[in-house]
Amino acid sequence: MLKFVKGHMESIEGIEVYPVISLLIFFIFFAVLFWWVLTAKKEHIKTVSNIPLDTENHI
């Protein structure tokens, strides 16, 4: 089965660029997410972490 898929993929021109694009998208996403976590205000993180425990606001 893998040989069939590999053989079919090799016949498509320009397909080698898609893994590179996917890697860049995921790397940029996680780099931005990591930057956001490091720069987030501690007060905001504490407020958001207490949302599941808040029994006063029922939506």
What is the tally of beta strands?
0
Compute the average pLDDT: 86
SSE run: HHH
Q: What spatial form do the alpha-carbon principal axes imply?
A: elongated
Rg, alpha carbons: 22 Å
Number of helical regions:
3
Alpha-carbon distance between the two ends: 50 Å
Low-confidence stretches: none
3D structure, described in words:
It is a single chain. With 59 residues, this protein is mainly alpha-helical. It is built from 3 helices and no strands. The chain has helices at residues 2-10, 17-39, 42-49. The longest helix has 23 residues, at 17-39. It is elongated. The protein starts with a helix and ends in a 10-residue tail after the last helix. The model has no long low-confidence stretch (mean pLDDT 86).
Secondary structure: elements and pairs:
Blueprint: H1 2-10, H2 17-39, H3 42-49
Give a quick precis of the structure.
The protein is mainly α. It is 68% helix and 0% strand. It has three helices and no strands.
